[in-house]
What does this fold into?
Amino acid sequence: MTIDVTKMNGPALIKAYNEAAAAQNKPLVKRFGDMAAAMKRTAAILGPKVKTPKAAAAPKKTKAAAAPKKTKAVAKPKAKKSSDDSIVRGGTKRDKLFNYMNKHVGEFLPISKLMQATYGESHKGLKGPLMMVMKGLRGVIATNRMGLKIEKQRKDKENHFGLISTKK
It folds into this structure.
């Protein structure tokens, strides 16, 4: 008597597999990943008394399976463009602000000059964005323990910021 696994449905394959697995003291299964795996594993555990045509064991190819798999693009690390190999990524607003303030360490610079150096223009609408850039720069300085800090002073009705060295 031969068993044709190609004519069996999922529950029948599980039942046949589990009966044979229990007789051989092998672990039982609750489900198979797909029909091809179910037929293949059931045929392997039942032994030579199984009828398995080669064409039936192969899974059907769908359009999705036939299409080549796309590989994910790997992001390249962004290169530093600053001339002094600073810790700030080159070409960014933070880099422009850091380079300008680094040229004037110990000096308090008016916010209008910092806007001009960072954005190329100075007006009231750039104050908020400049403060965000400066907040990020403070974080980078603190993270890298550079021995610098940004301090704020109020002079002539305008805020002045300075990059001050904490090293003695």
